[in-house]
Amino acid sequence: MTQYETDWMTPAEKPAQDRIYTDKTANPEKMLKLRAFQADMFERISLEETNKKASLLDRVESKYLLSEAQYGRLLRELADSYSVLEVCGTAVSSYETSYYDDDRFTLYYQHHNGRSDRYKLRLRHYLSSGEHYLEVKHKTNRGATIKSRINVDGVGDREVGRFLTEKFPYEAGRFRPVLKTVYTRMTLVSDEGSERITFDTDLRFMGAGGCYDCGDLVIAESKHERLANTPAQKKMKELSVRKASFSKYCVGAALLNRGLKSNRFKPKLLYLSRTSATGLTGLCGNRITPAAGGNFSIASTVSDVSSSAVSGANASATAVSGSAFSRVAVPYSEVTA
What we know:
The radius of gyration is 20 Å and the shape is globular. Helix 4 (68-78) crosses helix 7 (231-238). It starts with 12 loop residues before the first helix and ends with a helix. The chain is built from twelve helices and twelve strands. Strands 1, 2, 3, 4, 5, 6, 7, 8, 9, 10, 11 and 12 form a twelve-stranded mixed β-sheet that branches. It has one domain (1-337): Hypothetical Protein Pfu-838710-001, CATH 2.40.320.10. The protein is an alpha+beta fold. The chain has helices spanning 13-20, 28-39, 47-53, 68-78, 106-112, 157-167, 231-238, 248-256, 266-277, 298-301, 322-325, 332-336; strands at residues 43-46, 59-66, 82-86, 93-101, 118-126, 131-139, 145-151, 176-190, 195-207, 210-213, 218-225, 287-288.
């Protein structure tokens, strides 16, 4: 296989895997088959069972960056001690997320400049259920992360405006979609309930500066009890996987907007560019330039949702059109073309 290392598979599994996938960029549907193949290593667990088992009230969050080969080995090692979360009949879900910022990239620079009290505004589309959620993520000056969201499908302007007034401290009309991310996610829950860990794969960034395919990068985020030493943590240490911060919005915005200051994110950007330049199959690369005939338009990509998608005379009245948000989703085939 040219794109994926499969030394974590048994000899019997490799031929079947070769038939499933050879080139993910050209075959996104086959990529999903690969993810389903990986999910089938685990017993299934429902969301209700997960909430009972892993409430994680005193939780700590840790992020890790893995290669595809490390990810495959890790999954095999965890199959006996974790279950995979199943929602709407599937264990592998596809996500599309549009991030909003103003012309000055205020929210981006809050993070870049190390501001402790900062916000992100995004619209998330769950492809498995078809639902759309407008989300506000607030990192407080005490280090806590507060996520608030509202389902915008069929919701009126007034309700969305009220949500933004309560949760978002800026005039919503200033903000427009500046970055779209597409990725697949699988969630594992430890059998003893001490950990819930998500794996985001097949990550792509889309914006005014073009597109960027992150190839074999896998982003793991573990939510675990404060003093827990979980099987996943132990195995990642054995695989030389270390904790690493990674903001999808900030890394994607820095990659696709060359004029933005990006000193804070240079280690991640160098990480991506270095692995691409050396031809390694385990990590990221593959920048895609805008198509001939003009610049890439994020507005046209999200079905002509313009900056008025988060708009109105003021945030307290008609800040956001719920009907506009229902049109934000982009077909997966368009994103991966």
